């Protein structure tokens, strides 16, 4: 996979010095600044914590970023884990590679500022707020070892598709399927306005989420400077969620034949945690400041913890010396020399925080259909052909004919094909499929 070229290389920039080993000057920056900072620290925080449990438990996990505008987070983590360099050989795991990564981010011939399918690192991701929860649910169907973590922005949570997605766990069978771990990220703002969920009284939000069938664990970053507290609290919440997921699954899997629960028994089999009661799937509500760890104020106005951090918090670094100085201080605050060695490679003690090989969320085969798909065994259409001696004389339903072909497709591919529809399989005349599969 190494060495794949990007299709087109945009204009060259003056040398970028990502590790700030040269004094930062205005022409080390791009003329057009583009990207979404506000959501990014939250995504990084969650990603790092998931890495901890992946390593501890050898847990297969998939990461879905509902706030797909936080492209910097998913791209950076794919690079830090080495996956990005394995795919794009010219973006190596060193200072030169980092400079090229920074150059190509949101730049002609490079990669989009949003997490996007055309960026070919295989981490699961989304570019559009609100539309992605079906991805995690689908990813764990018949995938009992997988946990898919999905970060949901509070702005995204106000969209119709996302609001409907809270019900999707009702389609999961704890015996045969994996689990989805929703992480509702209340950073308080969408693009330019406050969000409703972040302003609900906590008790009301808790009742709402319980009503949807979840067991919410709240983590609140009360003091943005006290990152240790935040890390401890979030780690405990992740541990509680994993324990809760395993308890639900164990209670349904012990001695079970692994077959799927049926929805036509009133949902009891699909939702039961042993006793027949529907389980409350664990989830996390993370309240953290938007743009956490970024510039606290700019030009006398609060930025961290407000909507002003949504995109580019320091927009005038080329023309405003105070902004440039703040940018330097901000970047230095991450102490790059403690993270990277003289060649710009991640220091081994830092690199080991990420899992290895296929357990890396950026490399998981669960997000790479090209590695997992197997061809369908398709019956010949001709065996379902309908003889029409003369046009307009016979009454034959094309949908019923299609249904009998679909029946044969299902019976030949019981392990890797599923017909999925909310309600209209029979009313759309595909009922022959019920000869070989349950509703
Ligand atoms: C379907 C869709 N509509 C609109 C947008 C434009 N958009 C980009 S960011 C954003 C706000 C997202 O807010 P939130 O989910 O709270 O994310 P965060 O605050 O973490 O950035 C919107 C509406 C989008 N990306 N997708």
Summed up, what is this model?
With 439 residues, this protein is α/β, with parallel strands linked by helices.
Which structural traits does this protein have?
439 residues, alpha/beta, Rossmann fold, 5-stranded parallel beta sheet, two-stranded antiparallel sheet, 15 helices, 7 strands, 32% helix, 9% strand, binds thiamine diphosphate
* Overall 3D shape: globular
Strands across the major sheet, in which order? Answer: 1-2-3-5-4
Helix-strand sequence: HEHHHHEHEHHEHHEEEHHHHH
How many discrete domains? 2
User: Which CATH class of the largest domain is shown?
Assistant: Alpha Beta
Report how far apart the termini are.
Answer: 42 Å
Radius of gyration, in Å, reads 25 Å
Bound molecules: thiamine diphosphate
Task: Give the total of beta strands.
Answer: 7
Number of helices: 15
Task: Please name the CATH architecture of the largest domain.
Answer: 3-Layer(aba) Sandwich
Strand content: 5-15%
Q: What profile does the largest beta sheet have?
A: 5 strands, parallel
CATH homologous superfamily placement of the largest domain: Thiamin diphosphate (ThDP)-binding fold, Pyr/PP domains
Report the CATH topology name of the largest domain: Rossmann fold
The pLDDT mean sits at 89
Proportion of residues in helical segments: 25-40%
